[in-house]
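User: Let's play a game. I give you a shape written as tokens, and you guess the letters that built it. Ready? Here's round one.
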């Protein structure tokens, strides 16, 4: 897995920094023209060309928070800004995994490398996607929750506001798990962010954003969704989403006295119900798998996780042997079912996790 991570780092065949390019362009539009214009795609396209004429211009469809955090990097030379951003993305996720682990010895570092090795992690860094920061926030929140530092955990969980569709169920699942202070802390962060957005982007800018989200999305953004994997549409898609949400919340309630699996269950459920995803969003799946590794230290749990890391390795991906994006939701469904069953049908005392998170 360490070699796989090395291959990921040195073998880069993605359109480098293309998403970061869009983030910074929107941020510069906000600084120069006013934040209410960051969803004026004409202005964003002009700014993208000024930043780098060699990269493809694409619409900015991320929450305003992404433009806020990347705007200061627009004052640096573009290539330098991207390097700073890429180091921040990878470093934050790696540091979170290294700090938050509760395993001892080699198993702790195997999990860190295993979570970083899947091809989609370095893909996210290559294109400059913000998802590794969300994954880092979720990992830090998981550890803080285990340590009963719920207020800080809720603040860390505020990172999901950068891209809510990848982990939207997490704070609400924690509410069902009776982590009331954590949920209240997250709500406070969300309200503060919303106030800033209303004062800067305004209702007009947000209305334009929501209108564009309802429009046609780029090709391939549904590959990782229920529609892409199961061809589920209309009433069937709605039924499956309601079923998944119900299963996640029921499992969270069952785990309220030992909620270490609540966050990974909610992440997997969030990925399954999302109407659109990119390959880089699977960084959240890597984070969820890492949490399961730490929460369930038996071979019965860890060997399947190793198998998933191998399936997602750049070796198999580069040779066309890794599962297609449309096949990953099937694996997520299996993982969700296993986790929900584990919540409602716990193992015997002698076999269950020796380090479950306290209530």
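Assistant: Ready! My guess for every position:
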């Amino acid at each position: 897995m360490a070699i796989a991570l090395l291959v990921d780092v040195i073998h880069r065949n993605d359109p480098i920094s293309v998403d970061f390019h869009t983030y910074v362009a929107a941020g510069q539009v906000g600084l120069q023209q006013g934040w209410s214009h960051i969803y004026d795609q004409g202005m964003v396209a002009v700014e993208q060309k000024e930043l780098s004429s060699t990269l493809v211009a694409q619409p900015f469809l991320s929450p305003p928070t992404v433009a806020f955090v990347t705007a200061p990097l627009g004052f640096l030379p573009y290539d330098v800004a991207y390097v700073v951003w890429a180091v921040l993305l990878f470093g934050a996720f790696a540091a979170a995994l290294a700090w938050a682990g509760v395993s001892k010895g080699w198993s702790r570092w195997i999990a860190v490398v295993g979570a970083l090795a899947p091809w989609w992690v370095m893909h996210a860094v290559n294109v400059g996607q913000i998802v590794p920061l969300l994954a880092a926030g979720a990992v830090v929140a998981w550890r803080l929750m285990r340590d009963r530092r719920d207020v800080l955990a809720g603040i860390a969980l505020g990172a999901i506001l950068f891209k809510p569709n990848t982990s939207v169920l997490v704070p609400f699942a924690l509410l069902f798990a009776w982590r009331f202070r954590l949920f209240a802390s997250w709500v406070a962060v969300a309200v503060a962010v919303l106030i800033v957005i209303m004062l800067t982007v305004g209702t007009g800018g947000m209305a334009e954003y929501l209108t564009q989200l309802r429009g046609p999305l780029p090709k391939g953004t549904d590959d990782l969704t229920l529609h892409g994997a199961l061809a589920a549409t209309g009433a069937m898609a709605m039924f499956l989403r309601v079923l998944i949400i119900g299963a996640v919340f029921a499992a969270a309630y069952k785990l309220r006295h030992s909620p270490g699996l609540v966050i990974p269950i909610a992440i997997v459920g969030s990925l399954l119900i999302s109407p659109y995803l990119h390959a880089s969003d699977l960084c959240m799946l890597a984070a969820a798998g890492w949490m399961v590794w730490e929460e369930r230290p038996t071979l019965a749990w860890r060997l399947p996780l190793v198998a998933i890391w191998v399936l997602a390795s750049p070796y198999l991906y580069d040779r066309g042997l890794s599962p297609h994006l449309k096949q990953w939701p099937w694996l997520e469904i299996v993982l969700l079912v296993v986790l929900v069953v584990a919540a409602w049908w716990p193992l015997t005392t002698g076999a269950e996790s020796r380090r479950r998170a306290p209530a």
